[in-house]
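Quick question about two entries, pasted in order.
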Amino acid sequence: MLKRSIFYILIIIFILNHILPRSAYAYSYGNPGEEPMAEAYKELEKYVENDDWQSVKTVYETYKKEFDLYFTNTQPDIEQALEKKDADLLLKSWQAAMRLNIERRLHFAQEQFDDYGQAKLLLAKARGTFTVLEPILLEQGKEDVVNDIYADFDVALEALGNPGLFGIGSKESDRETFDERVNEIIETLRPLFPIVSEMDDDRHLTEENLDFLKGFGEKGSSTFWVYFTGILALVFIGLIVWNKRRQKS
């Protein structure tokens, strides 16, 4: 009798181990949606504000392996910021890295779509990173954008469906909707948190290059247009004279 009870217990443990979503275990240890490299941004803001660049460097060194693997495009900017103690460049570059991390988590969630627990955990990680970027957008007056992104996360989560426990409470997944919302999040965030060194270079728009615009009026009453019209008239007259001489010859 005892052996039979132990046998049944082992079977139940085996079934639960293979059926319960993986995230059920992950949720037992801390916040599953918390992304350490994103949370570190809050520390960076404080250190930069206090001009504590040694601590800033320590934070970067802590996550350097992640940058080496996933956010290499942001490293030149971050290292330049550390060298020059450029707070704005540092924070914007870290923001770009967080945006890349959201993309990474969402892409993996798409790849793991059929593994409900894993996909849900990756989606939570992406959302957790966005919560750190949220205050930046709110400061810029982009509350509507924030609301839209959270709505996309909510719909994406619903689209994952739910396998339920032993089929109880199961809900079918919707891959098409999931991909649409995930891609919408990615495309919305990309221009908002660009990699600084990859932004359009507008250094050619100097005052010297723009001087020729100073004389322009709203209705084109500029000396530029006077000279331009005069030159066109001379060219036109020259063409007439040249054509007449050509006909005579």
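Here is the second entry:
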Amino acid sequence: MRFLIPVVILGLPLAEIAGFVVVGREIGVAMTLLLVFLSAVAGVVLLRIQGFGMLQRVQEAARTGNDPGIDVLGGALIFLAAILLIVPGFISDVIGLLLFLPPVRRAAAAFLRTRLAIFTTGTGFYYSSNTRREEHRGPLIIDLEDDEFSRKKKDGDEDDAPPPNRISH
């Protein structure tokens, strides 16, 4: 795996140049440039269409309290697919178009999930089905009186270490 990244970084541009030469020889320079331009436009359009749809799914999952992790990964793959379409080259265009297909994207996401850890945090909001509106669920607040809590040492404690199972700030 370690040697694969330099091979891809060096080999992909060489393969793209070879692809330009082969396609340019078959259909001509003007049509080759037109194909490169059209693939870049397609990348921007597909990113706009599918990217906004993915963003709405992530927002809906976060709003309802579901884990948006898989949708975030799908959005990252859509962004990668769009970048591959925008970058000139026919091999990257084929990979980008494949990543725009939902079954291929799901397979890539499943492969990446086995190698990545996706952490998400809650927003502090939850959807209440009874009231049909979002309510803020704040932290649990415990109100202590002055005699119940003090930062001063008691009983001649000389130890500066915090008591066990306590968090010090």
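Reply: Helices lie at 4-27, 29-64, 69-86, 90-100, 102-113. The chain is about 60% helix and 5% strand. Hope that helps.
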